[in-house]
Design goal:
Length: 236
């Protein structure tokens, strides 16, 4: 009797899945820009990740998933810090000063870091002509897309204010790649949804005290936050 694993996948579902990823993932930088216009960056990260992690954890509990596995929680916390605090947190921070389109282009660099940082697979990756060619083509594409903005930016007085954000964003992409590789090599055997929930709760556990220490919570005027920032937070 054939199993579900051998059942062919509908091409339409594949197209819809990719379209959803492109639209949701691609638009997230635009909505971060809208959200951070009303929320302080660390408070935005705290609200986003802790709320999402809590809701997902409740859903996992309703499903009956096993939630408290110390080893899995530890790995999720480490990968969550790298992915969401360093990787996504830097994106939130730099969008205070950088255009969302510029950020979206720059965060396409993680594939380069994946290959450079994935030491266990160096012998395979660096012997693969297709991998090297893909990296070179992708890197060239990023430079071409970004060259006009770099040239125009460096030709203005705004260069000094945007350069730190650009360098910080490179660090953020390194964090995202490191977190992804950590998840790959220390793959948890538990539920992927539970793992994602712990990742977000771990990120929230960092952002919440950080937002208090930087006086964002104490000084934010909730009534002054525009409705579109709340909508953008809900979308994300």
């Amino acid at each position: 009797m054939p199993t579900n694993a051998n059942k062919p996948v509908s091409p339409l579902l594949v197209v819809l899945a990719f379209a959803t990823v492109y639209m949701v993932w691609g638009s997230t930088y635009f909505f971060i820009k809208i959200a951070v216009a009303g929320f302080p960056p660390l408070l935005l990260g705290a609200l986003r990740f802790f709320t999402a992690g809590l809701l997902l954890m409740v859903w996992c509990a309703i499903k009956g998933d096993k939630l408290f596995v110390p080893r899995n929680i530890l790995h999720a916390a480490i990968s969550g810090f790298l992915l969401l605090v360093i990787g996504n947190g830097v994106v939130i921070w730099v969008e205070q000063t950088l255009p969302s389109a510029m950020v979206a282009i720059m965060v396409t660099s993680p594939p380069i870091w994946f290959v450079l940082l994935d030491k266990p697979n160096w012998s395979t990756n660096f012997r693969s002509k297709s991998t090297i060619a893909g990296l070179l083509i992708g890197f060239t594409g990023v430079i071409l897309l970004f060259s006009e903005q770099i040239e125009s930016m460096l030709g203005t007085s705004a260069a000094s204010s945007k350069l730190p954000g650009m360098l910080l964003l490179v660090f953020g992409t390194l964090g995202w790649a490191s977190g992804s590789l950590y998840s790959k090599h220390y793959n948890n055997k538990g539920s992927s949804l539970v793992n994602a929930a712990w990742q977000m709760l771990a990120a929230g556990a960092f952002f919440i005290p950080a937002s208090f220490l930087t006086n964002e919570v104490q000084t934010v005027k909730w009534s002054n936050i525009p409705a579109q920032s709340w909508y953008a937070l809900a979308y994300r």
